[in-house]
Amino acid sequence: MNRVFLVLMIVLHFTAYSQSRKKVIIVLTYDDGLASQLDIAIPQLDSLGFKGTFFLTGYVGPKTIPRWRQMALKGHELANHSLYHPCLLTTVKGNAANNSANYSVYMMLREIGEMNNLLFAVDGGVSPRTYAYPCTEVAVGGINYVDSLRQSGLVKYARIGGGPDAVITDFKKLDPLQVPAWGIHAGVTGDELIAFVKKVQQSGGMGVLMFHGVGGDYITTPAAAHKKLLLYLKQHENEIEVTTFRAGMDGVAALNHN
Ligand SMILES: [Zn+2]
After folding, report:
1. Of 160, 235, 229, which Cα lies nearest the Cα of 188?
2. How much distance in Å is there from the Cα of 212 to the middle of ligand 1?
3. Which of 226, 243, 230 is nearest to 40 (CA)?
4. Spans of all domains in the chain
5. How far is the CA of 241 from the centre of ligand 1 (A)?
6. Which of 36, 55, 189, 217 has the maximal Cβ count within 10 Å?
């Protein structure tokens, strides 16, 4: 065989091989703007060069706002989790004023809009923001507000909940305002977190993880388990793209557009 032809065959084969190995997407999201995220999760992410998405509420203040601003400067995404985090008080304890049963859709959208403004004051970032439904509830006062939110243009993408089987494989059928995520339980192990990522690797899609506390606060992922997950992601960075919710969903939207 002609040597040039042989080299060409090898190059073509290698190109086909590398194109068949598309990266899967892993999105690390953190809810409620907790201190343990600033103190433990973000230093761990930074040490390995990963960016996370942080769904903040209006319960930020003079002590935390400068720190969140710094995190945004490092490339982490600050995102919208509403001002007062209204939930059905039948499912969680909370301030009666924030009982979503007593909310109208108008009140909810107004609150999401004001949280966008607060986030802009914190980091000067782009709008529309991404959003996570408080308590993963898509209804207030008994009315589903997904389509009202879509029409409002207040948010670009929105995250709902889900279990450890919430692996996204069909991008065409994915509603960008109802993106499922695994709501991670308290005391999760590093191996459980890695098992979820492996499921995503096998399916070739996208996986969104929903953390609360890391090494503290509540619904706490132990710091060592979080670190173990990050080390696994680093070791497999040729096959796994770890990115923010906004960037991950932008990638999905671009794929759907093609
Ligand atoms: Zn929350």
Report:
1. 229
2. 8
3. 226
4. 24-257
5. 25
6. 55
Q: What is the pLDDT of residues 135-164, one digit of tens each?
A: 999 999 999 999 999 999 999 999 999 999
| Mean pLDDT of the 72-81 span | 97
Does the 24-257 domain belong in CATH 3.60.40.10?
A: no
pLDDT tens readout for residues 85-112: 999 998 677 889 999 999 999 999 999 9
Residue type, 185: H
Neighbours of ion ligand 1 (CB under 5 A): 31-32
**91 CA distance to ligand 1 middle (Å):** 13
How close is the Cα of 88 to the center of ligand 1, in Å? Answer: 12
Cα gap 13→110, rounded to integer Å: 55
